[in-house]
Fold this sequence. Notes:
Blueprint: E1 2-3, E2 9-10, H1 16-33, H2 37-49, H3 54-67, H4 71-85
Antiparallel strand pairs: 1-2
Helix pairs in contact: 1-2, 1-3, 2-4, 3-4
Amino acid sequence: MDVNAKGNIEKPVFDRQTLSKKFIALLQQEIEKHDINLDLRAILVDFKGRGMSKKMMLESLEKLRNAVNAEIEEDVVLELMDYAFGWCRPEFSIFKQEDRSEYQ
């Protein structure tokens, strides 16, 4: 991360493919270390802030779901997909409720 002239931390901006790969890699690492999904949800919020769209997030999570080995890990990915899609309590949803169409 870089620090701008005002002392604020700036997050790097990545192209679509790099953003998706970084997202999947980070979640794979964290799923292996955590079983607390709210910690993992924070990663989704961070990548939304980096410009990841709902569609890209869901597509990336689907790729991750296909790559995980254990049923427990798949359950974690499915729960993260619920946060991204909005099939959760409104305060946990990553995207606004009015954006609930499958891919936006």
